[in-house]
Amino acid sequence: MRSSGSGARVVISDRHSLFRVYTMKRHILLPLLTYPDATSEIMVANAVMLARHMQATLTVCPVEITIPDVSNALSSLIIDAARMAREAGALSRKRASALTQKVVDEARAASVDLRTREIKVEEPFVVDALAEASRAYDLVLLELAGLSRPIVEAVLFGSGRPLILYPPAPFGGRIDRVAIAWDGSRAAARAAHDASFFLEQASKVCLLSVIDEKPVTYETGDCLIENLLKSGVTAEATRVRAHGKPVGEVLQSKALELRADLLVMGGFGHSRLREFVLGGATEAVLTSITLPVLLSH
């Protein structure tokens, strides 16, 4: 039996042994980046449509940056660093205002519950501020474009929350078919769990395994498929060979071939002095994506 609402099913019994079912509304965070690159209007539309599909509350968080003045007498003779810092801050504030208004307008038109919060932070600390802010939400939405990768990595590995990474292209919001990148690992299991809402609502779920890249045990995946089937979700396994191609590219290509609207993946990586050492599939996805990818670490 599937959840019919927008959140997790909760069952409460009273002293008469009657049961009441209600749903917890999900909360999505959309950071609005403003400097040096700004979040695109396409990403705004994608976020609003996904929130509408999930019947979720969408919180937008414009990030207004300031750049510390580190000029000295010598550098001031070459460039006016103080003026450049002021102009960057003004541009960030202007973009934050315009993007926020864009989200407000689109959310109103789509009847999406919208909230706003803002972050004002010095530019070097944006990644840490967004990783911390993300911890209060069920899901974070980010766009892989321009110079956003450090923020994507910080949220993925530092927030403890799943994120959906979008390519710079429009998507309708509805997620009907889901592919799960499955290798039997802890990260893959975590990602599948974090994608529960989408699995429950999907018309079809495919466990997608690359079988010639590293040893993969199939028993756990078969058990997961069995559990999904018992829960009323149509699910099946698909196994492919990479033939030496990057695993991330193979997974995305096969997901598109299966007409998946979302690819679910575990994010592999750890930090060495703030520089992330990434797994091969994660590295490929953070370099180039062709469909929305839910990443969880």
From TrEMBL:
SUPFAM superfamilies in UniProt: Adenine nucleotide alpha hydrolases-like (SSF52402)
Family matches, as InterPro entries: Universal_stress_UspA (IPR006015), UspA (IPR006016)
CDD domains for this protein: USP-like
Domain UspA: 176-295
Database matches in Pfam families: Usp
Family listed: Belongs to the universal stress protein A family.
Record-given protein name: Universal stress protein family protein
Organism for this UniProt entry: Rhizobium aethiopicum
